[in-house]
Design brief:
By secondary structure, chain A is an alpha/beta fold. Chain A contains 11 helices and 12 strands. Chain A is globular and about 75 Å long. Chain A starts with 8 loop residues before the first strand and ends in an 11-residue tail after the last helix. Classes of the chains: A alpha/beta (377), B mainly beta (338), C mainly alpha (466).
Chain lengths: 377, 338, 466
Amino acid sequence: MKRKGKEPVLVVTQLSGGNDFMNTLVPYASGHYYDARPTVSIDAGEVLPINDALGFHPNAAPLKELYDLGKVAVVQGIGYPNSNRSHFRAMDIWHTCEPDKVGTEGWVARAVRELDPHGENVLACVSFGKGLPRAVAAPGVPVTSLGDLERYGVMTDVAEEERGEALDVFKRMYTPASTGPEPAMERLSQTGLDVLRGIDLLKTAPETYRSNVEYAANPIAKGLRDVARVHLADLGTRIFYTQHGGYDTHANELPTHQRLLGELSGAIMDFYQDLEEHGAGDNVAMLVFTEFGRRIRDNGSGTDHGSGGGAFIIGPGVKGGLYAEYPPLAPSRWLNGEDLRHSIDFRGVYSTMLEQWMGLDPVPIVGGAFEQIRPFS
Amino acid sequence: MGRPYAMLRAGFPYVKTVGMRRMTVNFPVDLAIGKEGVLHILCRNEEGAMVRRLTGEDEDLGSFGSLGVGDGQLRWPVSIIADREGNLFVSDEALHRISKFSPQGEFLGKWGSHGAGDGELNAPSGIAFDKDENIYVADALNHRIQLFTKDGGFLAKWGSHGAGDGQFNMPWGVAVDELGDVYVADWRNDRIQKFTGGGRFIFKFGRSGSGESEFHRPAGVTVDRDGDVYVADTGNNRVQLFNHEGRYVQKFLGDATLSKSARAYMLANPMFLRLRDMAVIDEQKLFRSPRSVRVDDQGFMYVPDYGSFRVQIYRKDVERLREDQIAAPLRSPSLLTA
Amino acid sequence: MASDNLALTAHLMRRAGFGSTRGELEAHAARGYADLVEDLVNPERFPEVEEDVLERYYGWLEGVQGQVWAAVWIYRMVNSQRPLEEKMALFWHHVFATGVSKSDHPPSSIQQIKTFRRVGLSSLREILLELSRDPAMVFWLDNNENRKGAPNENYGRELLELFSMGVGNYSETDVKMAARAFTGWTFAQPLGLYPYGFYPSRFVYREEDHDDGVKTFLGSEGNLNGHDVIDIIAGQPATARFIARHLYNFFVADEPQVPAWSVAPPRDPEAIDALVQAYFDSGGEMRSVMRVLFNSDFFKESRFKRIKSPAELVAGVMKLTGANRFPDTRALDYADATAAMGQQLLNPPTVEGWHTGMEWIDGGTLNERVNFAVGQAQDAASPGVKAIIDRLAREGAPLSPKEFLDRCLDLVGPLTVGEETRDALLRHASAGGDLDLNADAQREAGEGRVLRMLQLIVASREYQFA
């Protein structure tokens, strides 16, 4: 569904390492849960209940608050057949929508190709964080990837007072006098000048940004603040990508996971309020995902790689509530005797976002027609 | 309590293994035995560094320290020792400093600066207290040993780069015996050198190789109260035991069994149980690249099993003999043993 | 002429290795081109990298995470006295692209690269045999699932399509037969990561899983086993041509990517013919093929005709600045840098390997390449930069802007730049007037100018080429 005036924007947040969904939205009324998690469980008295079966982790209070406002759609039990337990491979599958073979094109990049078929806006897709996630990579799709908004651009290691001159020389070096016969040289020229254009556009973002929201000092808060700043600068970015790492909680899970959920849900609330304050949130929806859930049984200190994770769709235009089904917890229903069953394919959730939010045909992007949910109607 | 005149060596049995990957111990490079037998296990790799605290019963008491260059952080930590109050000292060969922590792990201070002058350090590796709690430091890339007060005041130094007596090539481990003599794992010379506390060369033993009394890059050295010398023979994946004269006694190759935490972990993982059931387990007992060996007053030997994320524990079983309990020393071997 | 010899030597060292420091370059140039080629193709003449020191600082190398080992590999690229050995390992890693991401089992991937290092210059037959017995490859292409009666064709197919002959030179039946020949080629189950860390895997031939029926493969009939199939493959002209094309793309000049090879003719057919000839003359010995390649005119004339791979760029910058000559705590940053530029060592994206040439370049990766090089060149105290400053100072007389630029281009490469780059750099140099490093008052400012000039040069388009 198209917003009036403003085009829809998607913010993808990747939780790297495999978030423990059972300890994020806790089945606090289930004896099976406590049986399987003698050490790594959240006490029923501590959870923030949303009904008589499920409650948010106590440190996810901001997320619960947004949920109570009806702005959070929880996708319970998301996954795909034969879930892969390798971080790299599982993340690749989520990034490329190719569970059976090794794919090369990211689903976000394919969407960007539809949104900006001629690659006219170098900022159509902006990814924050180290390196380029495969989700946003595809041949010929320009994606701007930056670790840090303040330090984005080439020649950043040149002393500040020299940087203007360095950029000027860079521009001259990359501006061809004539179109040469060398395609590789041309590619370099084109790309170098694109990068410079991106820098020029992006530097306006921190300059014009004002906000009363104070984000916390952690990577996801910083990432979402950068998203807010670029979004508010109105540079035509349609898809943002951010990452929050550290979810691989094999050991000592309780304190670690508590910290992560606090950082994540606080950052989401700050981001939400920041956009509200600027009246710029109506055309924004977030998708929060992770590469897999964790094992049902704990290991005495943490939990190991599993399947059947959860995802969140958040935004002013979202119809909050629970979607798909919480994986069954009775041991007889465990997948392979140890894992959560998924109840919806992740490609169906991508399709939901692509079709119902971004207005794109999802089939070629995710590689097929998958059952969707209805969080926007 | 002095050294026994001699010993009847009954054996040195394996006792148990504590720790496992990630859950408790990652790449343990060294350990210090703190108050009430708490093991302070120093862990280091390129992606993390910390001190993990375990009880001897494999209970996790948490950790302190993290990878970084700030106060209380660790970048390339090498050695950890505990003083009589239980405070912990950790050397760091990337940051050229020694950091001090309370028994609970609070950062208390640091000393050391990078350089080659007196009292300056270039990649400090092994550290050891003398009886006055001064600290010997194997100053690896300056190829020397330096002695400091506990607070970092320079006291003495000896050694230079080379392979002669009293010279070193990237020394690593250092130990002090109850008489105050100093042992140095002269890492790249594949030998152990022994000095007086003042740095006078006494003797050396070991040469390159994989046989008895031969080393392949020995990293750790320690001495027990009987004067026995233990060497973590890193490149040969073993620990060798020598008597106080440097005579080879026996070696340890590793006997690990599943620790308490490892057992719990495996029982929670049906898939891993299946894969393990398909594998041969011979290799699992062996040490992998051990970089240190430590002993306590009860005769326990602790080997931080670097490549296998655990600590293997052995216990020395000897009868200590007075001079009147054993025949006088013999010059020559004899076949008349019956 | 002397300087042309230097430029040619620099070219050889960029291609057969990862560049050279100025000191190395001058010593190599003095040795003479043909003798230098002999040194390169006979790496065993020179000592190995000292692994004990690497282990001391980076950890037990059999047990480290893939990215740490990648960092150690980059160290070897910079420091090995056997540069071609390391370059061949990277070459085969490009061709036999095996990703650690599927197995999450670094020791196997590490073992594979060590195998490439060990056999990289021997006969293709031996190389393919080692490859077929390599646990990382067996798992990557599912040959552990390839059993009598239930063949899995993945390895058999890619062996023909991507590792030896190329599409269009064999039939679907040949794929099926090759797969049957490799039934039972698997590995022993290693102990798992938990609880005590990874253990290596070993090749195992399982007689009971092997299909010993009669097979017909590329016209040969019999109870063929895997090594028979390799023998047949290694004798095919298509194989010689396919490997020649790979060598050309990796060592000589950028070609279109592999999937296009069945339709797009080679850039230089005569060069490919020469390499094919060398292959058959030597019985497929890579050492001989490489000797012919490096001594050929087409190689000598191919200066700056390839875009550097990220590994080449990163290692090359270090040769320039003198960084990473002894283990230090930045190692992982270097491995992360190549990954950010699109080349995570040990983890190529697919079995097709990395797409090379201009496909290395997009907005994100160019940004990373430029910033990495510029960032590394910012330290006036780094040995390589300091040596350049000292050398310029030793010239005595003040340097005109043009001389200043020419000396810098020479010391960075020698690097040849186009008109736009030259104009831009000269304009920049001219703004500062003559460079006088010997006048005390100007020394610091002068050093700053050299530093900036080096940073600008390594940021240029031309520096992206090998």
